[in-house]
Design goal:
The complex is a heterodimer of chains A (567) and B (86). Chain A contains 18 helices and 21 strands. Chain A has 567 residues and is of the alpha+beta class. In chain A, the strands form six sheets. In chain A, strands 2, 3, 4, 5, 8, 16 and 17 form a seven-stranded mixed beta sheet that branches. A five-stranded antiparallel beta sheet of chain A has the order 10-9-21-20-19, with helices on both faces. The termini of chain A are far apart. The longest helix of chain B is centred in the first third of the chain and has 54 residues. With 86 residues, chain B is mainly alpha-helical. At the A-B interface, strand 3, helix 5, strand 7, helix 9 and helix 18 of A face helix 1 of B.
Chain lengths: 567, 86
């Protein structure tokens, strides 16, 4: 028998061939797959990467967490709360009627309202915004069920003001994008807001975010504490509202300041607009409340003495050729300085102003802080306008003596009165008490800062007595508070007319004063701009002072400084 | 035999890794859900605190004291401050 190794029987050959064919056939799918994979990864890389990115990953909405704004005692004036908005992607909704019925019941929105939005929208529309947690939970539960398909819930933060509109003109507004738009919200936007770029998060097929340690955020926002005391603010707003109802002014302002420290305890404006505090932004000619400044300046400079008597020139004083100043409120031939203040004599104040050199008077006005911003840092604060003395005529000097020809802001005037209350020391006004940083560090902002000694202590003491006499015997009687010595000055100034000159029927009435005179705790300024009802500072503004001061004295437990009052 | 053991070991290792990975993902989802619940409850708590703030506002307290309890605001001179004996 001959064996030949190279010989292959037809049967063996057939098997081998079949195996090769089989192998080739088996290799075809992997080769195709490998080829396809090569093609996809090389030529369709970008398309598939983006598809995978969309399917697995999602960008979390930027966190809207914002710091809080408190009053000086830690009462929350503005804070953010988490809410959600609910939208519908129409094409994913399985049963329109059932979904609409569910949303209507859960969100307490009429069905028709939702259906109207449905009909108007092309593909997506918001059903409701600012959804509170309880309703959100019901919606979140349904999201995983067929009924919830097509619903989209996205987080939002709503800025809440627990005390309503109280101090809103100071606090200001922040939008839904976490940006402070006005007031403190804008001034301290950097400290209050947390700027987080979008986070890349993994999502499950159900849409849930899969926790990742990198998603954990460090809270870095700060809380702002104002010097505002919500109780003082409430009383200021309440009293101002009452005055607004009584005389219907165009604008109204009430400020309460602590004279020893310069802290602003309350600042109310009417009308209330987010971040538009008239206390810092309103500019006006003060009229008679400015006599306090001119007479204090004249006394301190030595131009006049408190014992001087001023001739009233028959109550018709021609200050310059063709310019006559009249006093109609008295019939006296001469007035002492306290009487000039009590009767609010323009002739007296004008003559006293002329006793000073314009340069000296100008410098005193500037020393009191007029014509410059107070550095309180409130957005839109005006600096007013005090023209340089080089440009003053004799009439200008005299008229500045009784508060015309200068434009001032309420914060400047109250700070100047506080300087008199504070024995001549002008203090830096403050609105921010402290900033509480995320790491717990407290940054104190309201340390009392003495800007300068404007007038001597002796002059300040004299002025306190003069201003006290205005409330006891003069135009400010309605500011009297039983048991307390009150010092203050009324003002009724004519407003500039659009046609030129002064408008006879347009006034700014005001009162500025402090209490108790022995140890002043509160300086209060009231301004009623252009009241519809004809009125005066003594009749409209002085009672508002009393209405604000009384509850504050009671709440702070300030003891009476009059010893002989009857209970 | 040795090769087979290596292959089996490799597959076991892959299986182990997969199980661990799935566990991590499941835990991540649970944590996310819990975190969400915490946030919702915190938000609800915040709303309640805001309600407390509203109810304790000077306006509400004064209105309640005057209308419900018949109180009247005291004038400052009517308050007698006692000296601290210490």
């Amino acid at each position: 028998m001959i064996h030949n190794s190279s010989f292959t029987s037809p049967k063996t050959f057939n098997v081998k061939r079949r195996l090769n064919v089989m192998l080739a056939l088996m290799l075809v799918p992997p080769v195709i797959i490998a080829g396809k994979l090569f093609y996809m990864q090389t030529f369709q890389h970008q398309e598939f990467s983006s598809k995978a990115e969309k399917a697995i990953y999602d960008s979390l909405a930027e966190d809207r967490l914002r710091g809080k704004i408190f009053d000086v005692n830690g009462r929350s004036l503005a804070e953010s709360v988490r809410t959600h908005s609910c939208g519908i992607s129409k094409r994913y909704v399985q049963d329109k009627n059932q979904t609409v019925a569910f949303l209507s019941e859960t969100l307490e929105i009429p069905k028709n309202d939702i259906l109207k939005k449905w009909d108007k929208a092309a593909s997506f529309f918001f059903v409701a915004k600012k959804i509170k947690p309880d309703k959100y939970m019901k919606l979140a539960e349904i999201m995983r069920k067929p009924l919830g398909q097509g619903l989209e819930l996205s987080p939002e933060y709503e800025r809440i003001h627990p005390y309503g509109n109280s101090a809103l003109d100071i606090i200001g507004a922040a939008n839904s994008k976490n940006l402070g738009l006005s007031g403190i919200e804008q001034m301290f936007n950097k400290e209050l807001s947390q700027d987080i770029s979008k986070k890349r998060a993994k999502r499950s097929r159900g849409g849930d975010v899969i926790y990742d340690r990198s998603l954990k955020e460090k809270v870095s926002v700060s809380n702002i504490y104002l010097t505002i005391d919500e109780v003082a603010q409430f009383h200021a707003e309440k009293a101002l509202q009452k005055a607004v109802e009584a005389v219907a002014p165009e604008h109204a302002i009430a400020i309460v300041q602590e004279p020893a420290t310069g802290k602003i305890l309350a600042a109310a404006s009417y009308p209330v607009k987010d971040g538009q505090s008239l206390a810092f932004q309103f500019t006006y000619e003060p009229g008679s409340t400015f006599k306090t400044i001119s007479i204090a300046s004249a006394l301190d400079s030595g131009a006049v003495s408190i014992k001087d008597s001023i001739d009233m020139s028959g109550r018709n004083w021609e200050v310059a050729k063709g310019v006559v100043i009249k006093d109609k409120q008295h019939d006296k031939a001469a007035l002492s300085i306290p009487e000039i203040m009590q009767l609010s004599s323009n002739i007296g104040a004008g003559k006293i102003a002329l006793e000073m050199k314009p340069k000296d008077f100008f410098h005193y006005i500037k020393f009191f802080g007029f014509g410059n911003k107070t550095d309180i840092n409130f957005n839109g604060e005006s600096k007013g306008n005090v023209p340089h003395y080089n440009t003053w005529t004799r009439v200008d000097t005299a008229s500045k003596g009784y508060g015309y020809g200068v434009a001032i802001t309420p914060i400047q005037l109250i700070t100047a009165y506080s300087a008199i209350a504070n024995d001549g020391a002008l203090m830096q006004p403050h609105l921010i008490d402290r900033i509480e940083h995320a790491n717990g560090k407290i940054e104190k902002k309201s340390k009392p800062i003495k800007i300068r000694q404007v007038i001597s202590k002796e002059t300040a003491q004299i002025m306190k007595k003069v201003l006290q006499s205005v409330v006891e015997n003069g135009s400010g009687k309605r500011a009297q508070i039983k048991g307390y010595n009150v010092a203050g000055k009324t003002g009724t100034a004519e407003k500039l007319s659009k046609e030129g000159g002064y408008a006879k029927r347009q006034h700014v009435v005001s009162f500025c004063g402090f209490v108790p005179v022995s140890k002043p705790q509160f300086t209060i300024l009231i301004i009623l701009d252009n009241p519809a009802k004809y009125t005066f500072g003594g009749t409209a503004a002085a009672p508002v002072f009393k209405e604000i001061a009384e509850p504050l004295l009671a709440l702070k437990g300030v003891p009476p400084d009059q010893l002989d009052f009857e209970l | 035999m040795k090769k087979a053991a290596i292959v089996i070991g490799f597959f076991l290792w892959m299986f182990f890794i997969t199980v661990i990975h799935l566990g991590i993902i499941r835990s991540g989802r649970t944590i996310s859900r819990l975190q969400n619940d915490v946030e919702i409850k915190e938000a609800r708590n915040q709303y309640l605190q805001l309600e407390i703030a509203r109810l304790s506002s000077p306006e509400t307290v004064i209105r309640f004291a005057q209308t419900e309890l018949g109180f009247r605001p005291l004038k400052p001179h009517e308050i007698i401050l006692l000296d601290d004996p210490k």
